[in-house]
Design brief:
- This protein has 789 residues and is an alpha/beta fold.
- Helix 1 runs antiparallel to helix 17, helix 2 packs across helix 16 and helix 24 packs antiparallel against helix 26.
- It is built from 26 helices and 15 strands.
- It is globular, with a radius of gyration of 33 Å.
- The strands form four sheets. The protein has a seven-stranded mixed β-sheet with strand order 3-2-1-7-11-9-14, sandwiched between helices.
- It is a multi-pass membrane protein.
Length: 789
């Protein structure tokens, strides 16, 4: 639960907005407009500087204003939020047939990290939970540690299912005894039996937590918040039941039945995995969106696995088909998408699905709790990156207040009916591929938010902290994540314009505040990056500076500092985040430029997954060199302004130099920067020698049978070496040459060898026979070349 904001906090949130607007307005009038009106004798360059500086200040002030606006909405929601009582939730789901399929996309993950995620999903208190691990790794070509990691990940599901058997059996036995022995009017002994059942479940969780190896902050969170948090909740229920027994009372039979069902729900989870890249009939696009789409498109179907053609295909079976399916994918009313490095608290599912099933929320497509960071990170950069994540959590909660919610892909409960509304089906390579979550950009959740809004659906953030996710532990992996976050927002803007047009004139029309917040969310990184570049590197005239610019920015930084403290961080972290954003400026700018590149060329930007393996991820050289370029230029600018007496510019440049230096040393590291820079330069200059060409040995077994199904299915385009026997090919080609030679000699009437064209022209009567001989030979020869023979 968020702490309830005080009246003073809400008043400051409003005052911060007013101060920012007034300071910006007064600055524009007293400085920018005055410079334009009173400076007709100034140079053209000065006027250009004036307008550029004014636009830059306006853009940055607008972003700060949008943060303050969203923050105000978040505080109002935290103040008004009332947690739904547990008894109401249990009563609701006693009559509900809701089911949830948890989809966990995974690619090259550390098995222990995936294990925590799977357990947090399996222990959800929900009537019907099916956990599916969507493994996107290909075992082809893997060996050594990579293959061991993949096999370990595959084995996690069986380990969890086996571990759950004991508490599930105990809970079902307790439920059976309750049904057989409990009268319509339960007595104290019935309450005692229920208390003992809860004690047994809590003890199992305590022993599980005690056996865990606490090696990092994620393991500590799993043991304390997921396992012991659930255990403490069960012990609280046990305390109440024991108190009822001691006082000679008991809950009614219906309430006791709900409590027993809760125990069964906690330990009931159907665990399975799916690997889409094993099937050629599914999308092979290397991104998380298509991993999810592939499985969602199969839900509710029965399939036969066909591999007669040399590749595995999924062929749907019709309802009247009585043959035994090889794969059955159950359907589900709700989906829970969960990143493989995230963990959920125990009542995530019940509370969010309860929200979706309220009558007033029937058009809510997605609900979530924007993830928070794990506490106790061992590295400075992970702690500061986590602090920015916690600030984003507050911002997303405020967006919901103004109906401008965006889906954040780390976790979300989704109404499957809503995904069907935005589904697009196309034929790729002869196979129908259905796309629910668009992969046109690498921020697929943001684009899907606009798609859902255009179809009349809404999204809502639940105002609690129920989900936590890992943040990158080093600068290299952080680059991959933040460059992806900065890539795609501009490409989605046309869809936002279309959504506004569609909803215009309807009760769900897009209001001004929603337009502004959504525009800022998707595009602010673009103008903020370019704006900071201007402020850092362009020598603006000192007359353009004013204390009013500082006054416009100050409420933003003060509010962020207060939010950091409310989230468990330090007030002084606001300075560390400022330096953090300076060293990330080249990364954000690269993501924005990639968006522009895709907009111009139309080529999809490759999806780059954030590395989640142990060990430091190397950074591209340009991203470790440019932060030091920013530092050097800031120092040079400060020295120049000091000599010129431009004290405002001197203070700004000096502050940037100090903050960027601190961030570069703390978050990148001098040694790591040197290593990555040298490796980057060497890698750019170094050209690996080409291995000498060796004559390829035939890998074809001459006695192997011809795979005629594969030949007829694929044709020669995908013909492989093992599909046709070499001896048969050589024999047929040899026979063709003899027949062509004989026909050629016959047509010329001499022993000289004529060409094929001469045969065709000189002897029409033999044209058909020659074509019949040559065509198969040419086709086989072409196929052999393409197959690498």
């Amino acid at each position: 639960m968020h702490s309830r904001p005080s009246g003073g906090a809400v008043i400051w949130a409003r005052a911060a907005i007013v101060i920012t607007v007034l300071a910006w307005f007064i600055y524009m009038i007293t400085t920018i407009v005055r410079m334009v009106i009173e400076g007709p004798t100034e140079s053209f360059i000065f006027h250009v500087q004036t307008w550029i500086y004014g636009l830059t200040v306006t853009a940055l002030t607008f972003s700060a204003l949008m943060y303050l606006t969203a923050r105000y909405g978040a505080l109002v929601r935290f103040r008004e939020h009332r947690r739904v009582e547990r008894a109401l939730i249990d009563e609701h789901f006693a009559e509900s047939d809701a089911d949830v399929t948890v989809l966990i996309p995974s690619y090259d993950e550390e098995p222990e990290v995936v294990r925590y995620t799977l357990w947090s999903a399996a222990l959800q208190e929900f009537p019907s939970v099916r956990v599916v691990l969507l493994i996107d790794d290909k075992d082809t070509g893997l060996e050594g540690e990579a293959l061991d990691r993949l096999n370990h990940t595959r084995g996690l599901l069986g380990e969890i299912a086996e571990a759950l058997e004991t508490p599930l059996r105990q809970s079902r036995e307790a439920m059976r005894v309750f049904e057989e022995l409990t009268p319509e009017t339960p007595g104290p002994e019935d309450a005692k039996r229920a208390a003992d059942a809860y004690a047994a479940a809590a003890t199992w969780l305590d022993e599980f937590a005690a056996a865990e190896k606490i090696e990092d902050h994620m393991a500590e969170f799993f043991a304390e918040q997921v396992l012991l948090g659930l255990s403490n909740d069960l012990r609280l229920t046990r305390l109440a039941l024991n108190a009822a027994h001691e006082q000679g009372g008991s809950p009614d039979r219906g309430r006791l039945e709900q409590l027993y069902r809760r125990l069964v729900w906690i330990f009931s989870a159907d665990m399975s995995s799916f690997e889409r890249k094993k099937y050629a009939s599914l999308s092979q696009e290397p991104n998380k969106a298509m991993n999810l789409n592939s499985y969602i498109s199969l839900m509710g179907g029965r399939y036969r696995v066909s591999d007669e053609t040399g590749v595995r295909l999924l062929e749907p079976l019709r309802d009247r088909d009585e043959s035994t399916p090889d794969l059955v994918v159950p359907d589900s009313r709700y989906l829970l998408t969960l990143d493989a490095d995230s963990q959920l608290l125990r009542d995530y599912c019940v509370r969010l699905v309860y929200l979706l099933e309220q009558p007033e929320n029937e058009r809510v497509a997605v609900t979530q709790t924007p993830y928070s960071s794990f506490r106790g990170a061992p590295t400075r950069i992970e702690r500061i990156a986590g602090a920015t994540t916690d600030l984003q959590h507050i911002q997303h909660q405020g967006l919901t207040y103004f109906n401008a919610t965006f889906w954040v892909g780390a976790n979300a409960v989704i109404r499957k009916e809503a995904l069907a509304d935005i589904a697009v089906t196309e034929t790729v390579g002869g196979f129908e591929i259905t796309t629910y979550v668009q992969d046109r950009t690498v921020i697929e959740d943001t684009e899907s938010s606009i798609d859902l809004g255009a179809h009349g659906w809404s999204l809502e953030n639940y105002p609690e902290r129920l989900s936590y996710s890992a943040t990158p532990p080093d600068f290299g992996s952080l680059i991959v994540q933040r460059r992806r976050w900065a890539n795609g927002g501009l490409l989605i803007m046309p869809k936002l314009v279309e959504m506004i047009r569609i909803r215009k004139g309807t009760p769900a029309r897009v209001r001004l505040t929603e337009k502004l917040l959504r525009t800022n969310y998707m595009s602010s990184l673009a103008w903020a990056s370019f704006g900071l570049i201007f402020l850092l590197f362009f020598p603006f005239d000192s007359r353009l500076l004013s204390p009013l610019v500082v006054a416009a920015a100050l409420p933003y930084f003060i509010s962020q500092a207060l939010d950091l403290r409310a989230s468990g961080h330090r007030l002084s972290d606001i300075f560390r985040i400022y330096g953090f954003n300076l060293v990330l400026l080249p990364v954000n700018l690269a993501g924005v430029l990639k968006s522009m590149q895709q907009g111009v060329t139309g080529e999809k930007i490759p999806f780059a997954r954030t590395p989640k393996v142990t060990g430091r991820t190397a950074s591209p050289a340009i991203y470790v060199i440019l932060p030091f370029v920013i530092i050097a230029f800031s120092v040079l600018t400060a020295y120049r302004d000091l000599n010129l007496g431009n004290w405002g510019n001197f203070i700004f440049a000096g502050f940037n130099a100090v903050m960027a230096t601190w961030a570069a040393v703390s978050y990148i590291g001098v040694r790591a920067a040197i290593v990555d820079a040298v490796l980057g330069v060497v890698g750019w200059l170094y050209v690996a020698p080409k291995p000498p060409k060796t004559k390829r040995k035939s890998l074809v077994d001459p006695d192997a049978e011809v795979n005629w199904q594969a030949i007829l299915y694929h044709g020669d385009r995908r013909l492989r070496r093992d599909l046709v026997r070499t001896s048969d090919r050589r024999r047929r080609l040899g026979g063709v040459r003899k027949e062509v030679t004989a026909v050629s000699e016959l047509s010329t009437g001499s022993g000289s060898r004529g060409t094929v064209n001469e045969v065709t022209l000189a002897s029409p009567s033999t044209q058909t026979d020659v074509a019949a001989v040559i065509a198969p030979a040419a086709e086989q020869n072409s196929a052999a070349k393409r197959a690498g023979q």
